[in-house]
Design brief:
Chain lengths: 276, 308
């Protein structure tokens, strides 16, 4: 009997908590920011890599592997921690994150980091490249899915909307876009800087299948990813309502933790919260 | 030139199903045969160039060899970061095909002129820049690019450029094509102004100047050996391009002479570093920029005579 989604997610909470601790440790060691942006994606990445994507860390270039693109490259510490947890490279290597001569830069490089499909860092690239990948799957009847995780701020980019228009026109049912909708972009709230609402209606108007989930609820995320696979000719967007800095009380829903590194005291407080 | 390009690409694509052609909604009367013959290898990505380059990168990451076609400013400047990050950084077999080199779209105004593109594209790491001088070079360029399997910028004229070579030729990326031997001075030309270089050469020969004429279809990587030989064996190197003076063939040649510590006079002949102040035919705008046969021959002669 196939596993139920609940069974597939049996230790997801534990894995996510572990990644959150790793993200904090990486950022603290490197005196790096972007912690809030990474923490909001952790549960999505955990479900993708442990319960959904058909990928093999031992054969990361298999032709018909599912493709995942982290278009919001600045949140890459969560991706690196998840990839290491999944076995793409030794977890010890995470200690080199943004150090001199490290292969783990502050924005992910597909040339150097095992498991990274596309180098990102400038916003508004990932969904376009993912559209090309999904088009290839459709044209050649290849059996892989493409999932792209974008940020809410990234929905300001015109190129993102070019891809949204295009993917629907080309009927790319194998393409799923997840929006990490944590409501805070670089320099303020989305509502203040560049309001996106009604976001779901916009995507529907562009002829995408739209689902909205709690982006920290593993079961909802997996259910939505599975639901998205049922449409042959319609791309799907999952609007994941998330909390920037999720898991660390003093970081949650703040603009500042897009930038700040942690002091020793803040680091220990945060780790303690995530260990409870 | 673009007809030779499309014809050659179609023939190659019929043999290799991984070859794809994407247009940014341009190519009326040019791309129909490709579209109708190989619909599964053809794509109109609409008027959305940033997306078009991203899509091309995604296809290339899945094994395709992609040619992306539009008018030069739209397929280069508009989507430069996509070319840099998505194509060049990943070293993908994507060829950006730009139509309308220099003043090819002279009447259409400054938005359509292309006088900075070589410099911009040449500065991108990992990008090769190929500017064929006639239909035979365009045909050979397509074959060379398909073998190259790395990022390329193919700069084409528009239509109606005359054949300057006598027959089909082999083009090796990084190699100049010597069209005529000579020992007094060397003219190096790139792209669709090669035709003018040929006529200038004839004028100079009538003055008993023995001209070595090199076509330099690949501005990057440039043929440093051909430049070195010219620097050693002739008194003056003249570079000629339908492009501004910054970053093009003249710049690449000057860089080669400087880095190689070559002691040779260099005359850089190009269009201006400013927007054209009026519209006009390609010939008209060339003449306004001093890029007509008579002006060029006069300038070269004066410089050459000053050396004697």
């Amino acid at each position: 009997m196939p596993e139920t989604n609940l069974q597939r997610l049996s230790d997801a909470a534990q894995k996510s908590a572990e990644v959150r601790r790793t993200v904090l440790t990486m950022a603290h060691r490197a005196k790096n920011g972007h912690i809030g942006s990474a923490l909001s994606t952790v549960d999505i990445l955990s479900v993708l890599y442990h319960s959904f994507l058909r990928v093999d860390p031992k054969a990361p270039k298999t032709e018909d592997r599912d493709r995942f693109i982290l278009s919001k490259g600045h949140g890459c510490s969560a991706l690196y921690a998840t990839l290491a947890q999944r076995g793409y490279f030794p977890e010890k290597d995470l200690e080199t994150f943004i150090q001199n001569d490290s292969y783990l830069p502050g924005h992910p490089s597909a040339l150097h980091v095992p498991g990274v499909e596309l180098s990102t860092g400038s916003l508004g690239h990932g969904l376009n490249v993912g559209t090309g990948m999904a088009l290839c799957a459709r044209r050649d009847a290849r059996n892989f899915r493409t999932v792209v995780l974008i940020s809410d701020g990234e929905c300001d980019e015109g190129s993102t909307w070019e891809a949204i228009l295009t993917a629907a026109h080309w009927k790319l049912g194998s393409l799923t876009c997840i929006i990490d909708y944590n409501k805070i972009q670089s320099f303020g709230t989305v509502a203040d800087i560049m309001e996106l609402e009604p976001l779901a209606d916009k995507w529907r108007a562009f002829r995408w299948h739209v689902q909205e989930v709690d982006g920290h609820n593993h079961e909802q995320i997996l259910d939505a990813l599975e639901q998205a696979t049922t449409f042959a000719d319609t791309p799907s967007v999952i609007i994941a309502h998330t909390v920037k800095g999720k898991g660390v009380s003093f970081m949650e829903s703040t603009v500042e933790w897009h930038y700040w590194p942690t002091s020793d005291e803040q680091y220990h407080t945060a780790i303690a919260e995530l260990t409870l | 030139m673009r007809t030779a390009f499309v014809r050659t690409l179609l023939a190659a694509a019929q043999k290799d199903p991984s070859v794809m052609l994407i247009t940014g909604d341009l190519g009326f009367t040019v791309l129909e045969e490709f579209r109708d013959t190989l619909p599964n290898q053809y794509l109109n990505a609409g008027v959305a160039e940033q997306n078009m380059i991203g899509v091309a990168a995604g296809l290339a990451l899945c094994g395709k060899k992609v040619f992306v076609y539009s008018i030069i400013p739209f397929v280069t400047y508009r989507c430069l970061e996509q070319i840099r990050n998505d194509v060049c950084y990943h070293q993908l077999p994507v060829c950006v095909v730009g139509i309308g080199a220099g003043y090819s779209y002279g009447y259409q105004g400054a938005t359509h002129h292309a006088m900075e593109d070589i410099g911009i594209m040449r500065s991108l790491p990992g990008m090769s820049v190929i500017c064929p001088g006639d239909p035979y070079e365009a045909e050979a360029a397509v074959h060379a690019i398909l073998d190259w399997q790395k990022p390329c910028y193919l700069r084409l004229g528009k239509a109606g450029e005359p054949a300057l070579h006598s027959s089909a030729l082999q083009l090796e990326i990084g190699s100049a094509l010597q069209m005529q031997e000579g020992t007094d001075l060397t003219i190096i030309a790139t792209g669709n102004i090669l035709e003018t270089a040929v006529s200038v050469t004839k004028v100079l020969e009538a003055q008993n100047i023995r001209v070595r004429l090199l076509s330099m279809p690949t501005v990057k990587p440039i043929d440093t050996h051909a430049i070195s030989r010219a620097a050693t064996q002739t008194k003056l190197i003249v570079t000629l391009e339908e492009h501004g003076p910054i970053g093009g063939l003249g710049s690449a040649t000057a860089e080669t002479l400087s880095v190689g510590n070559m002691n040779c006079q260099h005359l850089l002949l190009s269009g201006p570093a400013t927007f054209a102040q009026m519209v006009g035919s390609q010939q008209h705008l060339r003449a306004k920029a001093g890029l007509d046969t008579e002006s060029l021959a006069r300038t070269i002669l004066k410089r050459y005579q000053s050396l004697s």
